[in-house]
Specification:
The structure is a homodimer.
Chain A: E1 7-16, E2 32-41, E3 47-51, H1 57-67, E4 69-71, E5 85-91, E6 98-102, E7 104-110, H2 125-138, H3 159-174, E8 177-183, H4 188-201, E9 204-208, E10 210-211, H5 227-244, E11 251-257, H6 265-277, E12 283-288, H7 292-301, H8 308-314, E13 322-326, H9 332-341, E14 344-347, H10 349-354, H11 362-367, E15 372-374, H12 386-399, H13 404-408, H14 432-446, E16 464-468, H15 489-493, H16 507-517, E17 523-528, E18 531-535
Parallel strand pairs in A: 1-5, 4-5, 7-8, 8-9, 9-11, 10-11, 11-12, 12-13, 13-14, 14-15
Antiparallel strand pairs in A: 1-2, 2-3, 6-16, 16-17, 17-18
Helix pairs in contact in A: 3-4, 4-5, 5-6, 12-14
């Protein structure tokens, strides 16, 4: 469909993290704020330029005139003789403390587990899979319970699955997630439906049909029939997704062996080959070293492998387009192998705390040159929000120094001072700025799109969110007992959600307040590739 | 003011935790759900009875008739001849998954630090105090910057302080906190204003003027002039608060030595004596053993004391009405002393993670018979929500088994099996039910009101919140692409906030979903002593 305007001009405040050269210590990550105008082409959804001088109305008008732009919503404002280039203007209000921020990237989320959000009791990984996860996922293969399907949706997926997946995509968009790497289930129709829903709602997504064929681990009611079935069913979803989005502009397939214990060697081998058939090779996602019992199980199941990471490496599943979720208990040798293969890691702190898995040593991973992003890991993680994941990444990094693995197990740092035998106390902590880096630039690198996503550099795709913190309370707003109207303060003060601003905050502090107190109420609008995909009702 | 009705009848679903005998292992805490009607007297705000048979309209009408009750809002419904007892009816909707729950008790919160919520960087306790806390608190002593005060508010407190305190009370009420134990600042007028605001808005509160007179630790710009000043200024706020609420029905003073390092021995001694002057003795609150550097400092400052806990004990500050915040690094001897004195502990998990203090071994404390409640510790804690504190209590208990202190430092458990030398793996975890117990019954015991607050037992005070989870999505609600109206699913589905119900949840699972996904949007109304003090706009 031809757009009614050539560009969208975003006006106001823009905050992002700068792209880091690989050699830069991540500890020095900072936020960058720019004010002015930035424009995105309707044709390809990419950032074509910006002007950080065009802050006030006069200089903005000058920018419009210089470019021959006319506002489609108010053509008279800037004059109009029919020869101008039509543009749409989107304004972030300074008074309401609004700013544009890159969309969040969720590098690890299980869409079918969404109905289980908040339900995990006191379980740990292996019993959690059996008690909570396999039962809910198996339901996605039920016979289509109502005549479903449209021209856009596969008609052989159960309506209950469509409903849940639709809600997952709506919810994650409402939290500012513009790109997600999804695990679906073993079922081809429901997996295809997830792809179709992402495509239709406009969320950038990697869609993985889950492969699990090992009868010694998987329950009889929920597994692939064979290794061949794992591969051929996966191929079928790849074909569907390629049909939906031939160039993979928005939605792409991702090869998804659930994790080593669920897969036979022939399945792992077949999936490694399948990924390599394509050019460029397909993305791959799986789990690694989440829980100590799981690590022991992998050692028992794959005695010929040198390590958990080596299991994947043997079957060509450890590539630069591989996302490894968790990585809590990796050995130094495994980290070295992962770095050599340039495989990526999805850090899922909310899940790792909820299931008692432990704390991933993110600083160690970063220091060693491994790429890390954030994942919600719904429903091991209890929240579909990457902002919550960023908070939890900060929090658990502050507890890391109290753990036995940090103090004993060889998570030694490569330090700026050259010493590698003793961690610098406090260096393991992630700052708010670093967590936001992981949530955006880090995630972009994890899905191998570091040149396209995660920031507001010229040429990047406009996957972004408009954050609204609300107004600062005025000193003239008196407490309840000093006013005559009896209205509660919260109504008059104008904060959005739980972010309370008192007026003395620096702009960096406002960002900190957003991270620690914000939620989906502060996400006013979300765009993917320049398309508005969510706005707060 | 005389009430227009004698009772309020609450109808619908009631959830609370049962009161536990001291000998019951806390691991077995369960939630209890009752459905029917419960009535609260307007005269004293206490629960006078309930009828769990009166679930349907017919049996409810029978209950009304039997008691000669008439609904003031709809007298004709049940007949009205002028001789009936007038009652007001408040209904929790079953279809909207509403239920009554005891109000939350925040056993540790610093009201003046509220503007700093979310601002702590990567600091730890001692540098955090210097960088963030003392500067913001010192502002509460500024000259009254506008003519403030009313008949209800002291006119010598700065308007800026009134505004912040007003917002704190409004915010905590909106999160369902019906009772809070507040640290204020050293300033008498602002401390008195906090008491007046709580009293006026109807929040149950303990108000502590902070004592800090040690010139070697406190900054020159923010300290008491002397030990005598600590005591006499505290006495002055006690008198103000007693004048405001002579029987202490709602608002009470609490003796508040900030923590050992900020106080000289004469101040500690004077404050212990001041508390004991009253009958019953006044409540006391302070901090203990939050951070290892703090523990080392106390050892250095008080070489004559056997332990940190012993410092307080020497000055009669360790009583059954003492609230000790944090208790992360207590020794077994200190725990024993605290148990002997029956002093109480406020567990502040969000703060302990945020400042990297460590993880308090709550199970050990409970097993040893120590009373524990939850605290937000704003702004060491980044959230004024006790629901968030309950979540964090669950999460950090799942990480506790990974910490060195748990594995090495003598946090040995008294086990059901009699072994005391090796922790049972997993037993340290707190369940959702236990966290909710700590947030309500536990908090009530911490403020020495276990007979009055924290549950829905007959005779208890109606400090309660009405929680609304929202409707279950109907299967007939089709995904976006199967509907013709184009409206996003979230609008039609009727969830409140982030709690998504799909219809298969048990009632216990709905509570889990509330705890893990809920926020202030789910708090529809809040009552203290039967008075409606907050309702969602």
């Amino acid at each position: 469909m031809a757009q009614a305007y050539a560009y969208t001009i975003y006006r106001g405040t823009f905050v992002h993290t700068p792209r880091l050269p690989d050699s830069t210590p991540r500890l020095k990550t900072e936020l960058v704020r720019n004010r002015g105008a930035l424009w995105v082409a309707s044709a390809d959804g990419r950032i074509k330029g910006f002007d950080w001088q065009a802050r006030d109305d006069a200089s903005f008008k000058e920018l419009m005139t210089r470019n021959g732009w006319v506002d489609v919503d108010a053509p008279q404002t800037y004059g109009y003789d029919g020869n101008e280039v039509k543009v749409k203007i989107v304004l972030a209000s300074e008074e309401r403390n609004e700013f544009f921020f890159p969309g969040f990237i969720d590098t690890h989320i299980h869409a079918p587990q969404f109905p289980n959000v908040g339900l995990f009791g006191s379980s740990t990984l292996l019993d959690w899979l059996e008690t909570y996860t396999f039962p809910v996922e198996s339901g996605f293969g039920a016979q289509a319970d109502q005549p479903g399907g449209t021209d856009k949706l596969p008609n052989d997926a159960p309506l209950s699955a469509l409903r849940i997946y639709d809600q997952v995509v709506a919810r994650t968009l409402s939290h500012g997630t513009t790109c997600a790497s999804y695990f679906a289930t073993v079922h081809v129709p429901a997996t295809n439906a997830l792809a179709a829903l992402c495509h239709s709602r406009g969320q950038r997504a990697f869609i993985g049909r889950v492969c699990m064929d090992n009868p010694d681990f998987c329950p009889p009611y929920y597994k692939d029939l064979s290794a061949d079935d794992s591969v051929s069913a996966t191929r079928s979803t790849i074909e569907y997704i390629r049909g939906l989005d031939p160039k993979g502009t928005l939605v792409n397939p991702i090869i998804t062996p659930r994790f080593a214990p669920t897969c036979t060697r022939p399945a792992l081998e077949g999936l490694g080959k399948l990924a390599a058939e394509f050019s460029p090779p397909l993305h791959i996602q799986t789990h690694i070293s989440e829980n100590t019992n799981e690590c022991a199980l992998v050692k028992e199941l794959f005695p010929e492998s040198e390590s958990y990471a080596d299991v994947y490496d043997r079957y060509n599943l450890l590539t630069k387009r591989t996302i490894l979720a968790h990585a809590v208990h990796l050995t130094p040798d495994e980290r070295n192998l992962i770095r050599q293969r340039d495989a990526k890691i999805s850090h899922c702190p909310a899940s790792n705390s909820a299931l008692g898995s432990g704390i991933a040593p993110v600083r160690t991973l970063l220091d060693e040159g491994i790429t890390v992003g954030l994942g919600t890991d719904v429903s091991g993680g209890y929240s579909p929000s990457i902002l919550e994941a960023a908070r939890q990444a900060c929090l658990v990094s502050r507890l890391l120094g109290h753990t036995t693995s940090f103090c004993q197990k060889g998570d030694k740092h490569v330090h700026e001072n050259g010493h590698a035998d003793k961690p610098i106390i406090g260096r393991e902590k992630l700052s708010v700025e670093e967590s936001l880096y992981l949530a955006t630039r880090g995630g972009a690198a994890v899905v191998d799109m570091a040149d396209d996503l995660g920031g507001f550099d010229e040429g990047m795709i406009w996957d972004a969110q408009l954050i609204e913190l609300g107004s600062v309370q005025e000193l003239s707003e008196k407490p309840l007992d000093m006013r005559t109207d009896g209205a509660p303060s919260l109504v008059k003060a104008g904060p959005v959600g739980n972010v309370d601003l008192f007026g003395a905050e620096t702009w960096e502090e406002k960002i900190h307040k957003w991270v620690w107190s914000g939620d989906d109420r502060n996400v006013k609008a979300v765009w993917v590739a320049g398309r508005l995909v969510h706005s707060k009702s």
